[in-house]
Design brief:
188 residues; mainly alpha; 73% helix; globular
């Protein structure tokens, strides 16, 4: 007479439970990616309804001085500095639209996006890429694969990255920005 066993690899119920857990994680990841795509679809829609005069007012001289300082901290080569300044110049209206759209999101969505962007930034930074390559590669993470050659998507994706550069989510911070940031581990 054969004994039934429920241990190890022959445990059908346990294998089913593990498969269910992996399926749930995959489904949750798909849902989160869908949310991100939906958010950025919203950004693209908002960019098309942009008031250019309002965008110009958003980039005050103080803000431009801040951006120039941040660029000089993060990009050492002259041609890279010129390139990043050109990105900001060409995309200022789209960056403003991204900012308006981002501010309209609830705080949880904002935190999720900040985490996602900073996580991707640190992944690229650990790969020891040059800062300009990181900036360009970060834009790729916002591109739906089917739109990688669409100039509108490319410019919006780069605008999103520049927005997060400006708001200090990614790249090195200026002295003023570092002083303003909350450090959870400061008193330990």
């Amino acid at each position: 007479m054969k004994k039934n066993s429920v241990t190890g690899r022959n445990n059908i119920v346990a294998n089913r439970d593990v498969n269910n857990i992996f399926q749930m994680q995959a489904i949750n990841q798909e849902v989160e990616l869908g949310v991100i795509n939906e958010i950025f679809d919203f950004v693209i829609k908002e960019a098309k309804c942009l008031d250019l005069d309002e965008s110009k007012k958003a980039f005050t001289s103080d803000r431009l001085i801040h951006i120039v300082k941040k660029i000089s901290i993060n990009f050492c080569e002259k041609d890279e500095i010129v390139e990043v300044k050109q990105y900001f110049t060409n995309l200022y209206s789209k960056i403003h639209s991204v900012e308006k759209s981002f501010q309209a999101l609830n705080e949880d969505d904002q935190q999720s996006i900040h985490f996602y962007v900073s996580s991707k930034y640190f992944d690229l930074k650990r790969s020891e890429m040059k800062p300009i390559e990181i900036l360009k590669n970060l834009a790729d993470i916002f591109m739906p694969p089917s739109s990688i050659k669409n100039p509108t998507y490319v410019s919006i994706a780069q605008s999103i990255v520049l927005f997060f550069f400006d708001d200090c989510t990614i790249f090195e911070k200026t002295v003023d920005e570092s002083n303003e940031q909350l450090d959870l581990f400061a008193d330990l």
